[in-house]
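For the sake of transparency, this paper describes our internal protein records without simplification. Because each token names a local backbone shape, the row as a whole describes the fold. One such record is reproduced below, unchanged from the form in which we store it:
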Amino acid sequence: MTSFIVSSFSEDGPFLEQALPSITTAGKNPTLVCIMRGGVVTHHVLSWYRQIEGKEIQFLVSHRENSSPTYGSGVAERFIPEVEPLSNAFKLTIGNVENSDEGTYYCAVWFSYKYIFGEGTVVRVQVFKDTQRPQMTLLGPSLVEMKLYRSATFLCHAARYSPNALRIKWHLNNQSSQHRSYTYPAIQTSSNTFDQTAEVSIPAALWDQGVEVTCILEHETGVQHLTTRANNKKQRDCKPERSTHDGMKHARNETEVNPAIFGGMPLHIIFL
């Protein structure tokens, strides 16, 4: 029996990253990108699925390099898969996009008798774009929490963004965090935008040792990074890095700022 696992992580094999959590298109031909980590894209059978709210997940197409695609029942050939060996990625282009094409699209790979899925990309079809970039804040930790419980909790808040498809991730010293984290449900505001908060808790000893804590927001409007660590220096270079629409390329600017004070402890904020 086939096992379906909606996950972007596999302990002993490849995992999949979808470049954007959502795409808003106005009658154009959107292209979804799926990057393979921990494996070689040309060694696998690659698939795409679509999830429409309230319905079962639908198989769209599977393929591998230098072979003809296999389509699901009733799926039109305007769904065009493509392999990109140089970037170790595969893509799906939706030709002549229609309103009925809206939904969440998942890339998938068959490995070790199960499917490994990507994180999902929401496709929205509408005439006018209503995208708004999240306003990002990173807070924490509390001195009281660190003294009493020897734990350091950080909050990452994204405000007034649209659409509501958003991924919040945590890194420690530029590596994905394995510590306890939680993302609260998004809240819709009176202006039809969204707010969302996530938290991560790490041992206070790590914070005392100077570990860098980074919150990453992945949104249709781009990828934002906000990093902090305990430091007694009075000033620090601040380097904003913003991604282009595809979430892949970045530009840097440099400016100097004073340290922020969170929970009574002097920190400096690094926008990466």
